[in-house]
Amino acid sequence: MLRAVGLVKSYRAPSGAPIRVLGGVDLTVKAGEIVVVTGPSGSGKSTLLNVLGLLEAGDGGDVWYQDDRVTALGRTARSRARGGYVGFLFQSFLLLPSLTALENVLLAARYVGRSGPATRQRALDLLAEVGVADRRDHFPPQLSGGEQQRVAFCRAVLNDPPLLLADEPTGSLDDANGAVILAALRGRARAGAAVVVVSHRPEAAVGATTVYRLRDGALESSWPHE
Amino acid sequence: MLRGYLFTVLGIAIGVAGLVSLGAMSERIVRFIDGGDRFVLGQISVAGRGMGMGAGFTAGGLLPASAVAAIAAVPGVAGVQPQVMLPLNPSTSQFMTLTQELVLGFDLSVPMPNRHYRSLPVRAGRFLREGDRRVAVLGAAFAASRGLGVGSRLTLEGESYEVVGVLDRMLTAPDRFVMVPIADARAQWVAKDALLRTVLASGAMPLTASDLNTGAAVGWRDGEDPDAVALRIRERVPGVNVQLPSELSQLLRSSTAFFSALLAGIGVLAFVIGGLSLANTVAAAVFERIRDFGVKRALGATDLQLGREVLAEALAVTLVGGLAGIALALSLGSFIDAFVAGGNQQLFHFSPRLLGGALAFSVLLGTAAAAYATARVVSVSPAEAIRRAS
Questions:
Q1: Does A73 reach chain B within 8 Å, measured CB to CB?
Q2: Class of domain A2-221
Q3: Residue B85 domain flag
Q4: Which residues of A touch B300 (CB under 8 A)?
Q5: Cα separation of the two ends of chain B
Q6: What is the 3-state secondary structure (H, E, C) of chain B?
Q7: Confidence of residue B225 (pLDDT cuts 50, 70, 90)
Q8: Burial of A149 (0-12, 13-18, 19+ CB in 10 A)
Q9: Mutate which: A55, A96, A100, A157, vs B, most B CBs within 10 A
């Protein structure tokens, strides 16, 4: 489902010197697989996820979603590719504070041309599935961190994207809520989605197909975890 | 759609309220000047030569009945209405006022010759009629400042007058007028002017009541050039001061040049201050939501979708903020005008063109500011947008 070849990305330090974060990363994730990328803070895990999800451009290399070489697309086509292929889960949830939980979930459908009662019903079903149906009319500041991440998960999977990219999805949660989110991600993989999780927490690797460690801009194969 | 925009709407409302309030003050001055201009362009004003008691555009010496008859005989003249215009309070302090309170006496046997004011708009009661005595019609500001209405009584030079009408607020000179039949105005003139009383008592001049005019309003026939008719009167009738409508208009304009400059300055200030405030508020509201834009782009929003969304929101927010600002300005203006009404003043004029223009201006400027801010925001990557707000 996801293939990345030779991804390169550098940032400029305040002094102007380039800092290479990704030094030619190759990665393949098939449908139904969970790939976990670990590494210390600042190692470039989030940057890798951003480049894979077309949230920022790399300096080199290519990314394919299925057979589409999405790094070759223009701005609008990239936006459409994100909307059509990818669901994102962020450490800080990134819910829109002016929208209710249900409206936040439905936001994912707005930009891919889906709307109507069926989409709304699916959003309600998803909220019920993760145990926050009774919070659907609450605004994010009225929700706990765990509840917010559950809502964010519903938003990420509303359109049934074939690729889920999760950036430290349990980083702001307690163990119990973290376990709920990780279980939900595994469930998506079982349903056929390709899942990439970036995390520094060991429990994220439980059930992973492959675990990589990002070091010095390159992925080192770590261990598959049962 | 407007949830979460309360402070933006308030910010816009304050900017628009400032713009509308300053604009309304400017409109007030424009209305005053235009009203005077319209009046002087609607008639030829004639006064007796020399200096006398007359005030306003009839300032000058006596305009006797013979002169009135001579003017009426000039080709092109359609009607001559003798008038008496006197300061209500002829004390020296009144000379320093821009908008003096005046007594204006009309000869009601002659139709109003002013082409732009065939009649004056009466808000309550009625206007003067031929044969009336000891009755008065008051300008709106004059009536309001003294708490007078139809049926009230007013004492002028020791005589009691019944108020039979109050004019609509015209935002120009007649707002401060007391209008009476010319016979009553003549009586007041004699009562006010000791020199005139002495002359009359001495019998040195063969004067009758109909000679006691401070001026006359002269109308012209259809198709006539008013300036040409005025020049003809000047040539053919000796001993009168004739004001050419265009000259008088120019004189009025030059005497109000300071105010014209002032209102232009107020207008520019209103646009700059109100506009900057509004544009800044809208742009700040968009920049503030950079993270939201990052999230929406992560969810697949294209630049066009985001642009449309932001412009629709900006339109709605500036419209609501603009309307709230107008309401705020109207409330403030009404409050201040009510406060100063006792001093015979009206500081604001909220004309439809001002309100419509302010709303259109705020919506256009708000939308433009939103478009600029959106273009800036979408120029950064979604990841950068999310990072910047973290």
A1: no
A2: alpha beta
A3: yes
A4: 79-80, 82-84, 108, 111-112
A5: 24
A6: CCCCCHHHHHHHHHHHHHHHHHHHHHHHHHHHHHHHHHHHHCCEEEEECCCCCCCHHHCCECCCHHHHHHHHCCCCEEEEEEEEEEECCCCHHHHHCCCCCEEEEECCCCCCCCCCCCCCCEEEECCCCCCCCCEEEECHHHHHHHCCCCCCEEEECCEEEEEEEEECCCCCHHHHEEEEEHHHHHHHHHHHCHHHHHHHHHCCCCCCHHHCCCEEEEEECCCCCHHHHHHHHHHHCCCEEEECHHHHHHHHHHHCHHHHHHHHHHHHHHHHHHHHHHHHHHHHHHHHCHHHHHHHHHCCCCHHHHHHHHHHHHHHHHHHHHHHHHHHHHHHHHHHHHHHHHHCCCCCCCCHHHHHHHHHHHHHHHHHHHHHHHHHHHCCCHHHHHHHHC
A7: very high
A8: buried
A9: A55
As a whole number of angstroms, the distance between CA A28 and CA A35 comes to: 9
B14 and B126 within one domain: no
Q: State ipTM.
A: 0.93
Instruction: Give the mean model confidence (pLDDT) for residues B304-319.
Output: 88
pLDDT category, B278, cuts 50, 70, 90? Answer: confident
Whether the Cβ atoms of residue B108 and residue B185 lie closer than 8 Å to each other: no
One domain for residues B63 and B204: yes
What is the SS3 assignment for A190?
helix
Long-range CB contacts (within 8 A, 24+) of A216-221: A216/A23, A217/A20, A217/A21, A217/A22, A217/A23, A217/A24, A217/A25, A217/A44, A218/A23, A218/A24, A218/A25, A219/A25, A219/A26, A219/A27, A219/A37
Contact B228, B76 (CB under 8 A): yes
For position B248, what pLDDT does the model report?
77
pTM of the model: 0.69
Contact criterion met (CB below 8 Å) for B15 and B274 = yes
Asked if B299 lies within 8 A of A84 by C-beta distance, the reply is no
Q: Cα(B248)–Cα(B240) distance, rounded to whole angstroms?
A: 15
CA A110 to chain B, closest CA, distance in angstroms equals: 8
Domain residue limits, chain A: 2-221
pLDDT value of residue B96: 44
Q: Are residues B89 and B221 in the same domain?
A: yes
Q: How far is CA B339 from CA A210, B30, B174, in A?
A: 79, 22, 21
Is B40 domain-assigned?
A: no
Chain B residues whose beta carbon lies within 8 Å of the beta carbon of residue A92: 390
β-pairing, B102-106 vs B177-181, is parallel
Q: Is residue B247 part of a domain?
A: no
